[in-house]
Specification:
- It is a single chain.
- The protein is of the alpha/beta class.
- It has 2 domains: 281 residues, 3-Layer(aba) Sandwich (Rossmann fold), CATH 3.40.50; 118 residues, no CATH class.
- Helices cover 40% and strands 15% of the residues.
- It contains 13 helices and 10 strands.
- Strands 1, 2, 3, 4, 5, 8, 9 and 10 form an 8-stranded mixed sheet that branches.
- The radius of gyration is 22 Å and the shape is globular.
């Protein structure tokens, strides 16, 4: 029944167009946070691992083989072919780490027939792409004699559908198929997200127990109360916990971890911050950040303020969230103050408070400069179209720089390079 609920959930998501890329920016699967925060974060992290691999394969005149584990509609193929080679500048076209031509084989596997059919439709013009209905609980879907893959990829929590036994089997089989080296990308739901502190205390006794989850966020806010939303079990992971899990499996298969990186993605802007389904005290920060990015839309900046409620059993998480809260709110307040005093250029040029961390000081300087310059910009609404997007990017930079890979976020992105 639980697996049936998962299948029904994804079939319904495809049917309502949740996996179409033209959804509105204020809500839905492809909202502004997904486009400007989450996708960009994934690409930035993955570039560091994929660029050396691509260079080696090009020197060997060989293409890259990718298996996408829980591929959905094949969105991973789009992520991999849009990895930035270096930060963009003003006078040149952006360079990509790899293109479709660099991929000799992309094999997408997913348990949902509806998703697989959608993937076939979306990527019909890519001859190197194939999509197959497979259940990862049954192991790595490799045929006898099938060549190993260079990249075993996953995105947006797909591997959190696996229980520990199935996941251990999958990772072990990936390790057994490593020839020289392979990259493993595990995208999971973070255990300690502020979206579900109701689960934090339960994890002391048996963290491997699956917890109830839903994807109610894919529906428009005014329709969520009218639609029957499927709920299904999901495995939430902490960063240290998952790293131990992977390292022990790799060692048991005689495989070394040559390189690793674990990152928190969407700490304060996770999907369920808006729904409050698992935490009634969660502020709808994702909705507010979506609004910051929306053209010609002004945002109530007070909706961006975050008040953390400490957890009695997790002092290390309390310290992390307190620091992020203070930094985040300092930048929001600085923007509110700058907008209030936009006619006073002298005030906007004063130095930020000396007690703030350098990252916060730089953000305050930047937002004050944006407000100071905004009246001279030829824009329909300088606040909505210049100041607010700049604030969004500064808050994004705070999240990216302060994250510690704790699993204190909606998404835990873990990337490993395995080497024989």
């Amino acid at each position: 029944m639980k697996q049936l609920d998962v299948l029904k959930n994804y079939a319904k998501a495809v049917a309502i167009g949740a996996y179409d890329s033209d959804s509105p920016g204020l809500f839905g699967k492809h909202d502004n946070v997904r486009r400007y925060w989450e996708d960009r974060f994934n690409r930035t992290v993955l570039s560091q691992f994929l660029e050396p691999l691509v260079e080696r394969q090009r020197e060997a005149n060989s293409g890259i083989r990718v298996m996408d584990l829980g591929c959905g509609a094949g969105e991973g193929l789009g992520i991999l072919t849009t990895l930035p080679k270096r930060p963009r500048n003003l006078d040149s076209e952006p360079e990509r780490v790899l293109s479709y031509r660099d991929i000799s084989c992309y094999k997408g596997v997913d348990i949902s027939p509806a998703m697989i059919q959608k993937g076939k439709e979306v990527h019909a013009k890519h001859s190197q792409a194939s999509f197959n209905v497979c259940d990862l609980n049954e192991g790595l879907p490799m045929e006898p004699g099938e060549a190993p893959y260079d990249v075993y990829f996953s995105s947006y929590g797909s591997l959190s559908h696996l229980n520990d036994e199935s996941f251990e089997q999958l990772i072990g089989q990936i390790c057994k198929n490593v020839e020289d080296r392979s990259i493993f990308v595990a995208d999971l739901l973070g255990r300690y997200s502020y979206e579900w502190p109701c689960y934090w205390g339960e994890n002391k006794d048996n963290g491997s127990i699956m917890k109830t989850y839903s994807m109610s966020y894919i529906y428009p806010p005014d329709a969520r109360g009218e639609i029957e939303v499927e709920r299904f079990p999901i495995r939430f992971w902490g960063g240290e916990e998952f790293d131990r899990f992977v390292t022990q499996i790799a060692a048991s298969k005689g495989v070394k971890v040559a390189k690793r990186r674990l990152c928190d993605r969407s700490i304060l802007v996770g999907r369920h911050m808006n729904t409050r389904e698992f935490n009634p005290e969660a502020p709808p920060l994702r909705a507010a950040v979506n609004s910051l990015h929306q053209i010609n839309t002004r945002t109530d900046l007070s909706q961006l303020l975050f008040e953390y409620h400490p957890h009695p059993d997790h002092p290390h998480l309390n310290r992390f969230f307190d620091k992020l809260q203070d930094s985040w709110n300092a930048v929001v307040y600085a923007c509110m103050d700058a907008l209030e005093h936009w006619r006073n250029p002298h005030k906007l040029q004063t130095e930020p408070p000396a007690g703030e961390p350098p990252l916060v000081q730089d953000a305050i300087r930047t937002i004050r400069k944006a407000v100071r310059c905004a009246p001279n910009m030829r824009l329909d609404d300088p606040r909505a179209n210049l100041v607010e997007p700049q604030l969004a990017y500064l808050l994004r930079e705070l999240e990216w720089n302060l994250q510690q890979g704790l699993g204190a976020s909606h998404g835990l992105l873990a990337v490993y390079e395995f080497k024989k």
